[in-house]
Amino acid sequence: MRIAIHQPDYIPYLGYFYKISKADLFVYLDDAQFSNDNMHHRNVIKTSQGVKRLTIPLDYHFKDAINRVRTKDELGWKEKHLALITANYSKAKYYKEVFPLLQELLLTKYENLADMNMTINRFILSGFGFRTAIVKASELNITSKKEERVLDICSLLKANEYYSGLGAKAYQKTEDFKNRGVELIYSDYKAFPYPQNGDAFDSNLSVLDYLFHCGFDWNRVLEGVKKKGEEI
């Protein structure tokens, strides 16, 4: 069985969903420590003035887990994000199909940041038609850290393959996985061009950019990644 693991991020980029699509089982690290440097509470969209960051205001303490972080909904950030999205994507081909569902999910009240992100991501996964099983790390009772935790999750879930993002190459050791009977496989995702507002193509935006312009067409993603890989 192949598994993939990642923190629950806010409307992440296409490569995040590509990673999930390649796994039999995906584990949300919902109890990982929140990092202000990562994409747990922000992402980017394309506007007429260029790339614009959407950031969620939060209430948290240092070393809090993502599933302990509260979003400051009283500041009206949800309405602001939705207004900005509408201002820049209302004329996109699939806006009327995607936006009402996104709006309903985003305006729902959530206990914490992790729950909100996972709920929105599940909607996107369902739209793409994925059948990948999903579990939360907080339900696994594993207390180890960093690479050791990934290895322990693989062992607990009886995985023989671990599908990883390229960023983890800096600290993961193939030999450590091999010693646990797990083959370490890195994602082959590459950003590819698709119909988009403006003249120049911007890659690695929030998945929303793709959804508004291309809908839930996953075959276009697979074909785009394959073609981009063949060019390199």
UniProtKB/TrEMBL annotation:
Top-rank lineage group of the source organism: Bacteria
Protein name: WbqC family protein
Organism from which the protein derives: Anaerocolumna chitinilytica
